[in-house]
Specification:
The structure is a single chain. The chain has one domain: Immunoglobulin-like. Helices cover about 0% and strands about 60% of the residues. The chain has no helices and eight strands. The protein has strands at about 10-20, 25-30, 35, 45-50, 55-65, 70-80, 80-90, 105-114. The strands form two sheets. Strands 4-5-1-8 form a four-stranded mixed beta sheet, with no helix packed on it. Strands 3-2-6-7 form a four-stranded antiparallel beta sheet, with no helix packed on it. A hairpin with a 2-residue loop joins strand 6 and strand 7. It is elongated, with a radius of gyration of 17 Å. About 15% of the residues are buried. This is Ig-like domain-containing protein. Keywords: Signal.
């Protein structure tokens, strides 16, 4: 009987942007230069956004495998300006094998614009 193939390591990357500005800002996400919206058809990328008064909180959740280097950009703007935060992800392994072959959670920083 053949052994099943090894499980691929899946990761969960959660990037958060919280922008507070007047007038209220808009947030846009880009992954490797591609714009990702709440209505995006990519199943491994999900954007959620909450707006309350002059604060916008947006999260991008990426589930899957990290192959190669990736760039995630959170860009907030209103009529007075633009604020951009870039998350650079690199898959430069250490050669170590993780103990849990299920999933890893990698938190990313939060951008705050006042």
């Amino acid at each position: 009987m053949a052994l099943p193939p090894p499980l691929a390591l899946q990761i969960i990357i959660l990037c958060n942007c919280s922008l507070l500005a007047k007038p209220s800002p808009q947030i846009q996400w880009q992954v490797d230069g591609n714009i990702i919206t709440e209505n995006s058809s990519q199943p491994d990328l999900k954007v959620t956004t909450l707006t309350q008064d002059n604060e916008v909180i947006s999260s991008l959740r990426w589930t899957g495998s990290l192959e190669g280097d990736r760039s995630i950009i959170c860009s907030g703007n209103n009529s007075l300006g633009v604020y951009t935060m870039q998350f650079l992800l690199s898959n430069q392994g250490t050669g170590e094998t993780p103990l849990d072959s299920g999933s890893q959670h990698i938190p990313a920083n939060t951008a705050i614009m006042h």
